[in-house]
Amino acid sequence: MHSPVVTRFAPSPTGYLHIGGARTALFNWLYARGRGGKFLLRIEDTDRARSTPEATAAILKGLTWLGLDWDGDVISQFERAPRHADVAHDLLAKGKAYKCFATQEEIQTFRGTAEAEKRSTLYRSPWRDADPATHPDAPHVIRIKAPLGGETVIRDRVQGDVVIRNDQLDDMVMLRSDGTPVYMLAVVVDDHDMGVTHVIRGDDHLNNAARQMMIYQAMDWDVPVWAHIPLIHGPDGKKLSKRHGALGVEEYQAMGYPAAGMRNYLTRLGWSHGDDEIFTDAEAQAWFDLDAIGRAPARLDFKKLDHVSGQHIARMADAALLHETVAYLDSTGAPALTVLQTDRLLAAMPNLKDRARTFPELLEKAHFALIGRPVGPDDKARELLDDVSCRILLELTPQLQNATWSRQDIEAATAQFAEDRGMKFARLAGPLRAALAGRTATPSVFDMMLVLGRDETLARLGDAAENRTGGA
RNA sequence: GGCCCGUUCGUCUAUCGGUUAGGACGUCAGGUUUUCAACCUGAAAAGAGGGGUUCAACUCCCCUACGGGCUGCCA
Known about the structure:
By secondary structure, the protein is mostly helical. It is 49% helix and 10% strand.
């Protein structure tokens, strides 16, 4: 029997939730949720100069929007500093660490000459084996005693076994001379104390794993399962940076991608399960596994994101889609919808959801359902409402008046009307669309009529005709 | 400089020694059509380079090239 899975996401609160970080969080979430485990959240706020509460709030907000719920309280790494220091002193007492009195200037000088002479820059402290009786009464750091020979094997579920010779490891600093812990110590202690069983993080930490293992081993703690995943790159294959735009998840929210689509796209980026492309959360959780994660960095592809997003919008239940669409609208600062607008939007959902890949696209096509009279056609729609067309609409109105307002009946009446005049239905569709929606890209004219109802439909047709004849 | 990781169609990927190297997005050409989208059919499109190992290599090993990471009293 395996111990229950515990994963964690541990961002530094120095800005928004980065898209790459979001994917790391997603992988941790999927792995834990798929195995009935826990997904914890820890904020690595030990860098007091760069950490801000606003950034923490932005990260939590981003995770929440993405639908990645975490278990338990959010842990602050900074608040655990005393515990980290305890571990360092514990190691000191056990003889597995030592006080180093070398000054930073000394070390810098050493590294400078080492570099100039093209020798290894790993610093070997002379204090490692110094007699405590000879220790000066001076500021010092606490360094761990790195293993002197042999090698460390990082058993990584993504990268495979990575072997690092121990002579590549130095006696790293655990506690600074001001008594504060360094990151390397803090992560290990926190992960251990939080019971983290699987560390899934960016592969920029791969080499650090060997360093961190020194602490696990010195404390005789279980080493977690490692999974170092490649970072996401921009469309050009370069590391993601500001010039790629859209770095924070809130930007994707603002662009109108549904969270479910983002999850699917991000999951599929660098991970695969056969030929499956579009899947539900339940499927993703059931299928997700560390071994299937690719080892090469994947590039962001907005075209594919659009597609995946559109597939999810098309598959969402009408009520849920309405809810998300309204939430999106709210996030743009638009005024709240009226009851009538909401009703019409919901009624139109079946006709809207497979024509849109993002919420803005959906809303654009839902324009007819959200406006009142007069519709105020845009330029392209106005062109379709010429004199001849308006006259035709005027003549069509009585035919529609008598229809039972079922799709079949409206369609039949319109077809009959067209046939009587010897015109193609396509001749009618344009003006009809323009009169009803004031736009040229909309759902089917019949579907719009059904959503609007007889009175509103006839009124809009009348408006268009009247406007034209009246103005002329 | 030292150490570590990576490299299959434009992009995301499948393949876990033997396949006409498969799928998806995108692209192109058709079809459907009431605009937009969706949908259907088809096409073009890939193993970084060089050595090995093997009857057989995308797959295993080595070298090179290119890309990335680590090498802090940053995280």
